[in-house]
Write a structure and sequence with these properties.
Protein name (chain A): TELO2 interacting protein 1
Distance between the termini of chain B: 19 Å
Helix content of chain B: under 10%
Keywords (chain B): Repeat, WD repeat
InterPro entries (chain B): WD40/YVTN_repeat-like_dom_sf, WD40_repeat_dom_sf, WD40_rpt
Helix content of chain A: 55-70%
Strand order of the largest sheet of chain B: 1-28-27-26
Shape of chain B: globular
Low-confidence stretches of chain A: 1-157, 610-626, 735-767, 927-956, 970-1005, 1024-1028, 1201-1209
Radius of gyration of chain B: 19 Å
Pfam families (chain A): TPR_TTI1_2nd (PF24176), TPR_TTI1_C (PF24181), TPR_TTI1_N (PF24173), TTI1 (PF21547)
Protein name (chain B): G protein subunit beta 1 like
Oligomer: heterodimer
Chain lengths: ~1200, ~325
């Protein structure tokens, strides 16, 4: 509590210092600076400039110093205890003498400090070994950050005194003064003078200046804390500007500084040291460590120095853990880092192998203490700030990486070497890093690491997470064998951080992963691969549960983890895959996660709009359309999750044994309907991945893929997909379709005894076909279609060979009535086009017509497939040209013979095909007369009937045909007219001159297309009596156009009353019904009648009374209460009526609802009253207004503008 | 209940004329593409790639006159074809060439298919109907030297030869010729002596096709009537009727025993292909696909038995390919 108010200002101060430090750094790094200055000194004082080694420099420099010191000391002689070694100084061995001189001082001044109790950290640091060492031998001390020095000293411009002589003159008084009286003022004075001395000069006078300062620290008795602090700071500044060139000086300074940190044990109730002092000492230690080089510093790392080192470590650890001030914590950690020779700054040379080994041996003693303390710091209160955590993590991995380095452990002898007897006490403190030790240490570290990783992987500050990445990187690089058990956690953290919210963490993490993969760390380390696969296994086990319970963000991270493991395993994935239980877990997890949501009714209800555009229209459309309908999954919604899952599968496919995987997932595909969709999805992605398409991996696979293998796998999957049992599924409850589909399954059952079990599986669901089932089936087909697209993309032109079996089924689905399926199939076709480099869908279809014809012909042989086959033919015809006539001819014969055998069921399907045949023939052969024909047939764009092409293709034939037909029909109906003058007028204009006609009836064989047309028409004769209302109306329409009068009579007498009455009676029912009504037979009847009636009326040119009947019957269907489709159909009736009789239709509609008031143009005319005027908005309003608008448009086109006003009654 | 007959595996279209003869060449190793040769009424020989199921090459060498026999000589790069232009052509198809290297003018106006037999390395015998009505001529290829001319005895009234089958019991033994004649008899000829060894009247109508299994010394013949006749050759080189098989519909245009001698296929005028077990002539299947007379049937020579195919060519311009398992 007491420390609290103090903290803020202190921190500010610290920052100031830091800033200053930075400033100095910018001017010149201390190292180079120092080196330069040292060099300068050498130039001045010695002739042997060419001799550069440090020791030479030291010796020469030392000589100079000794001379200067001699002079200095002479003046001191009378009162100084050091006076007695004046003569020895002259003997040019100043350092030794100095030390000897200092020794008695230390005995007096430092004695109490030596007895100082070791910090609590020491105990842990040495884990019992080092605990007593400070007491038993010389107590060791610590160092501080290299900065923190008054900036002025570093500035050369301030160095007034460049030569040692001048400097000596300037410094001597202050030193003398300080030696006499150890006061703050004196220290400050010395400090001030130091600022004016150049570094090179100071180097010469280093020991001379240090002497009074050290003396001040050693003066017995209680000392003012602030004095100690300023002395320590002053020492720091001297050290920062100079090099320590003697081992003894280093060790003594080190121990003296450490002593300052440990509170005197004499007082029973020790007053804690001030934070400023601690900081100053730490920094001084830091500076000290940086001012010593090579062998000098190395002396601290001899086994004999272990106790000293241990003491410093424990002190610093204590500070790092227990201090509240961040600055101290961080400084202590930094200092420790320097102490274990892992400083970040560039000045230090790298340890060579042997040195590292030696250090490792030495630091192994501290490892338990350091690691435990650091782990406490790392997992400590977040309020301590990220910097200390970051430093602690860094220190942790540096020391662990050093001590547990695989390279070092590998060199350790099995048994501990016997050290010489004199060192046996020390050797007790030393750890032997044998296998047992490393094993047990690794276990303990694993616990610590686990805790740390858990804590810091979710640390709010990104720098901590970044440092964690570094930790994993460092340890993985250095200790992948010794710490193998920890990697379970470490890799988990690493892989998890790939998706860190911070981009820097993310990119570094990726880099590290990449590095791991590139160096084949996993690939070469079986144990690590085992760890990973173990992780994978447990994750796969937990995956379904996690997917169920986590939110989307959680799922993303879980899946990234999965993906990361797989990527890291890389080529070693096969270890996992070869284990049945692994593969099983993984695949089941994928199956569950990828479960689709099949509740959407819309998927089932969305139908492809038929009619005008037809398959060809949508084909065009499909080319531009962006493909791939979004899938809805049961367990997630985020697109990113799906992408991750895709990647998972692709990575599997990329590295894994493709045969094994395909086989396994094919097994799942066949195993249960529940897994089928997911398995297909996985298979698609596997293949994509295996081909290396769109897969993001860390390393290349070892064996590149064999195209034949890929092709083999694709072919077997394709066979399975397009197998009858998997390709023809119930996707609609449309009665027509359902009967087909069912028979398909039966036939599938018989034709493929091998596939019987799967068919049975589907059959069992027959009685209750729910929307859910249909939705699921639709998705399955779509996924399979997408798969075909993938395969094409993967194989490229090679896929052309597979078109033989693949194109037909896809085209079949392109004509499917379910919107989703047809669109997906179109997407697949586009993919195939691209992959096989066809310019367009037309090209694709055109160039592979032979394959298609084959499929069509074979499928026509089976009743159940006929509708599909005819759809494909239809599509094909639209995209072929005359060159294919021989092929088409061939298959049309098949169609006709199929039609012959199944008038009952399929007639309307085939009629459509035959219509397109005729249209195609017109296009190919009848272009010249086509225009003429179109001029005559003004508004017939909507007539989706057989007749369009016929007249044009073979006029004589058509004429003959209809003449024949009418006669036959009349005879058949027992309604033989007296004369032949019932012959249709409409046909006559088309007729060629009679002679021409008779000519062609001769023996000359008709051209093949004409023959074909004739064949087609002959079939149509029977269709009028077809049982299916739709077919009948269609045929009626066609006939009506050709032979109006006769039919008109018959129609108004027999047919119309029945139709209108049925419409009227059904109307209330449909108005009440809900959406399910759309699937009833009644609805379909209504729809068929309404759709056909309009065109029929127009074709037949019906009389007014009949038209009125029709209009009345249809009017009620304009009600908004009717199902939408019926409304639309009713609208179409009225649109037709408008063509026939616009005026009466206008009137009729206005009677229902009249939007305008009609002002009479002259007062003498009576105002117009229509019953629809001023009515409230009702159920009919919308549709009527729509129709009136259309009427208006139509009129404005037909009549010159402005005259349409004249239409009222 | 028996399984319903399968559908064709594939149907080859595009000959634009009736197909009269078929010959597989599928024995090659991997990079070799399995091939089917077809000869059609318009005089073209089509070389089908059985991987893409498309025509690779179209050979035109018989003056647009019907081609009714195609056979490879040695490798699939050398082809022999016989057409209604009264010529037998030898083709060189190597490296994409499509040239006729040699031809033999048969002067025969009938449509009797010739028969080819390899007698030694690089030496073949070919038997063909000769200019004179009842004669059969045997040539050696590639030298085109006449080996013998087989003339029936005066007054035998065999009529024209309708079908021929050269065979030898084993390599190096005496080649023999079986010939089916217009009068319905099958005659076994000794080539070296030019003598009839045995004659058997199997049919009331002309023999349209025959095939012979040298291992079992048994042969089968079909005619325009409703009967298949199986006959055997005893050790005295005498032909004997072994069995007859009644058919529902009359007319057999081609008979082929599968190289493994397990089953045989017939091409029927009733548009159907019939499959029988060769041992007991047990009917196995009726393959119904064509819409006109089937002219020829042929089995493939794939190395791998599971890939083996049956092809049938028909008047309806199509070639149907079937996968007939065991």
């Amino acid at each position: 509590m007491a420390a609290r108010p103090l903290t803020p200002p202190r921190r500010v101060e610290g920052q100031h210092r830091t800033d200053r430090r930075r400033e100095t750094r910018r001017t010149a790094t201390p190292g180079t600076d120092r080196a330069r200055r040292a060099g300068r000194g050498r130039w001045k004082y010695s002739a042997c400039a060419a001799a550069s080694p440090q020791d030479r420099q030291g010796a020469v420099g030392g000589a100079c110093v000794s001379r200067a010191a001699g002079t200095f000391l002479t003046t001191l002689r009378p009162r100084s205890a050091g006076g007695r070694f004046l003569s020895r100084c002259r003997a040019r061995r100043p350092a030794r003498h100095f030390r000897h001189a200092a020794a008695p001082l230390r005995e007096q001044v430092g004695a109490p400090a030596l007895r100082g109790r070791p910090g609590p950290g020491a105990r842990e640091a040495a884990a019992g070994r080092c605990r007593d060492s400070p007491r038993r031998s010389r107590p060791p001390p610590p160092p501080p950050p290299q900065l923190l020095l008054p900036p002025c000293r570093r500035r050369p411009s301030m160095a007034v005194f460049d030569t040692p002589q001048e400097a000596f003159g300037a410094l001597r008084p202050a030193c003398v003064q300080l030696t006499r009286a150890q006061t703050m003022e004196n220290v400050a004075r010395l400090q001030a003078h130091l600022a004016a001395v150049s570094a090179s000069a100071l180097q010469e006078l280093q020991e001379y200046v240090l002497f009074p300062l050290r003396f001040a620290l050693k003066v017995p008795g209680p000392k003012q804390e602030r004095l100690v602090q300023s002395v320590v700071q002053c020492i720091s500044s001297v050290l920062a500007a100079t090099c320590v060139k003697k081992q003894e000086l280093l060790q003594e300074l080190f121990s003296e500084l450490c002593t300052c940190l440990s509170p005197p044990s004499s007082s029973s109730n020790p007053v804690p040291l001030s934070e400023e002092l601690k900081l100053a000492v730490i920094q001084a230690l830091h500076t000290l460590m940086h001012s010593a080089y090579g062998d000098v510093i190395w002396s601290l790392y001899q086994p004999t120095a272990l106790p000293l080192l241990g003491f410093a470590v424990s002190l610093l650890l204590g500070l790092a853990e227990q201090e509240k001030a961040k600055q101290i914590k961080i400084s202590a950690l930094k200092c420790l880092q320097v102490l274990v020779l892992q400083c970040d700054c560039q000045e230090h040379r790298h340890l060579d192998e042997d040195e590292a080994q030696q250090c490792g041996d030495l630091f192994a003693s501290f490892l338990p203490g350091i690691s435990i303390t650091l782990s406490r710091v790392i997992t400590g209160d977040i309020k301590q700030g990220h910097k200390s955590t970051v430093s602690a993590i860094r220190l942790f991995y540096l020391i662990v990486g050093l001590v547990m380095a695989d390279a070092q452990l590998a060199r350790i002898a099995k048994n501990k070497e016997k050290l010489p007897v004199e060192e046996s006490r020390i050797s007790e403190l030393m750890v032997h890093r044998g296998p047992d030790w490393s094993k047990s240490t690794a276990e303990k570290l694993s616990l610590l690491l686990h805790k740390m990783v858990e804590f810091s992987s979710v640390h709010p500050h990104w720098k901590v997470r970044l440092e964690l990445v570094e930790l994993v990187h460092h340890l993985l690089r250095n200790c992948s064998q010794s710490l193998v058990d920890s990697f379970s956690h470490l890799l988990k953290a690493l892989v998890g951080l790939v998706n860190d919210e911070n981009s820097e963490v993310q990119s570094r993490c990726k880099e590290v992963l990449q590095g791991i993969a590139e160096q084949r760390i996993v690939a070469q380390n079986r144990a690590l691969a085992d760890v990973l696969s173990e992780n994978l296994h447990s994750l796969a086990t937990a995956l379904p549960r996690l997917m169920n319970s986590q939110d989307d963000t959680g799922k993303v991270s879980t899946l990234s983890l999965l993906l990361g493991y797989l990527k890291l395993l890389g080529p070693k994935i096969n270890i996992v895959l070869n284990s049945i239980s692994h593969l099983h877990r993984l695949s089941k997890a994928l199956m569950q996660v990828l479960e689709l949501d099949v509740t959407d009714v819309k998927i089932v209800e969305d139908r492809r709009c038929e009619g005008v555009c037809g398959p060809s229209g949508s084909l065009q459309h499909g080319v531009q359309k962006d493909r791939c309908q979004k899938k809805y999954f049961r367990f997630f919604t985020d697109e990113k999750i799906f992408q991750l899952l895709q990647q998972v599968c692709r990575v599997l496919g990329y590295y894994g044994n493709l045969y094994l995987l395909v086989d396994h997932f094919m097994g799942l595909y066949g195993e249960s309907g529940m897994y089928r969709k997911q398995a297909a999805m996985v298979l698609n992605e596997l293949i994509t991945g295996a081909a290396g398409v769109g897969v993001d991996v860390l390393q290349e696979r070892e064996v590149s893929l064999n195209v034949d293998d890929l092709k083999g796998s694709i072919m077997s999957i394709l066979d399975e997909y397009t197998d009858q049992a998997n390709w023809y599924l119930i996707t609609s409850i449309d009665t027509e379709e359902i009967s087909h589909e069912h028979s398909v399954q039966h036939s599938g059952l018989t034709a493929h005894p091998g596939g019987a079990c799967s068919s049975v599986l589907l059959l069992s669901s027959e009685p209750h076909i729910t929307t859910r089932t249909m939705n699921s089936n639709i998705w399955q087909i779509c996924i399979q279609l997408e798969g075909v697209g993938c395969f094409a993309a993967v194989l490229g032109k090679e896929f052309r060979l597979l078109l033989l079996s693949a194109l037909y089924p896809v085209l079949e689905k392109a004509g499917d009535k379910t919107l989703l399926i047809s669109e997906t199939a179109l997407g697949t076709l586009v993919d195939i086009c691209k992959a096989c480099s066809y310019d367009s869908l037309q090209c694709l279809i055109n160039e592979n017509s032979d394959y298609l014809v084959n499929g069509i012909s074979l499928n026509l042989r089976q009743l159940a497939h006929q509708p599909h086959a005819s759809q494909v033919l239809d599509t094909m015809l639209r995209h072929s040209d005359a060159s294919l006539l021989p092929l088409v001819e061939d298959v049309i014969q098949d169609v006709l013979s199929a039609l012959d055998q199944s008038y009952n069921n399929q007639a309307s399907t085939f009629l459509g095909v035959l219509h397109s045949v005729m249209t195609a023939l017109v296009q190919w052969f009848g272009s010249s007369s086509g225009e003429e024909h179109q001029q005559r047939q003004t508004p017939e764009w909507w007539s989706g009937t057989l007749s369009q092409g016929q007249q044009v293709v073979t006029r004589q034939e058509v004429e003959q045909f209809f003449l024949d037909y009418v006669r036959q029909k009349q005879i058949a109906e027992g309604n033989l007219p007296d004369t032949g003058d019932e012959e249709p007028d409409e046909v006559l204009p088309l007729a060629e001159p009679e002679p021409n006609n008779s000519d062609t009836e001769g023996e000359t064989p008709l051209p093949s297309h004409a023959q074909l047309a004739k064949d087609v028409m002959e079939r149509c004769i029977h269709l009028l009596s077809d049982g299916n209302l739709r077919v009948r109306l269609k045929v009626l329409c066609t006939l009506a156009q050709k032979c109006g009068d006769f039919l008109r009579q018959r129609f108004s007498k027999d047919v119309l009353p029945k139709l209108t009455s049925s419409l009227l009676s059904q109307a209330p029912a449909s108005a009440r019904a809900g959406p399910v009504y759309n699937h009833t037979l009644a609805f379909k009847l209504q729809l068929a009648v309404l759709q056909g009636l309009g065109s029929l009326c127009e074709k037949l040119d019906m009389g007014e009374s009949d038209l009125n009947k029709v209009a009345d019957a249809c009017l009620i269907y304009l009600s908004a209460k009717q199902p939408m489709k019926l409304q639309e159909a009713a609208q179409s009736v009225f649109l037709h009526l408008m063509h026939v009789d616009p005026d009466s239709t206008w009137l009729l509609l206005n009677e229902v609802c009249c939007p305008h008031q009609y002002e009479p143009p002259h007062i003498s005319l009576r105002p117009v009253k229509l019953s629809g005027m001023g009515r409230q908005r009702n159920e009919f309003t919308d549709n009527v207004l729509l129709l009136l608008e259309k009427l208006q448009q139509q009129e404005s086109v037909m009549l010159p503008a402005g005259t349409q006003e004249a239409s009222p009654p | 209940m028996a399984l319903p007959p399968p559908d064709p595996q594939f149907v080859l279209r595009g000959t634009s004329a009736a197909v009269h003869t078929l010959h597989f060449s599928c024995g090659g190793q991997e990079p070799d593409i399995p091939t089917l040769f077809s000869g059609s009424e318009n005089g073209f020989i089509h070389v089908w790639n059985l991987k893409t199921h498309r025509v690779d090459t179209e050979l035109d060498g018989h003056g647009r006159k019907s081609v009714y026999y195609v056979e490879t000589i040695g490798s699939k790069n050398r082809l022999l074809s016989q057409g209604r232009d009264q010529r037998i052509c030898l083709w060189d198809l190597a490296e994409g060439r499509t040239s006729v290297t040699d031809s033999v003018f048969t002067e025969n106006v009938g449509f009797c298919r010739c028969s080819l037999l390899k007698v030694a390395q690089g030496r073949w015998l070919v038997a063909m109907a000769a200019k004179a009505l009842e004669e059969v001529q045997v040539l050696e290829l590639p030298s085109k030297t006449s080996v013998c001319t087989l003339k029936p005895e005066v007054g035998a009234k065999l009529g024209m030869p309708m079908c021929l089958k050269l065979w030898q019991l084993n390599c190096g033994s005496q080649p023999l010729l079986l010939a089916g004649y217009e009068d319905g008899s099958v005659v076994l000829w000794n080539l070296s002596m030019g003598k009839v060894l045995s004659q058997l009247v199997c049919h009331q109508e002309p023999v349209m096709s025959l095939d012979f299994d040298a291992e079992k010394a048994k042969g089968i013949s079909g005619s325009s009537e409703k009967v298949l006749s199986i006959w055997s050759l005893n050790e005295q080189q005498n032909l004997q009727v072994y069995k007859t098989h009644k058919l529902v519909n009359a007319g057999i245009s081609d008979i082929t025993i599968r190289p493994d001698k397990k089953i045989l296929a017939t091409a029927g005028w009733d548009h159907r292909i019939r499959i029988f077990g060769w041992k007991k002539l047990k009917p196995l299947a009726v393959l119904d696909y064509h819409t006109a007379t089937v002219h020829c049937v042929s089995f493939s020579d794939h190395k791998n038995p599971s890939e083996r195919l049956l092809a049938a060519g028909s008047k309806d311009h199509r070639i149907s390919i079937w996968s007939i398992y065991t």
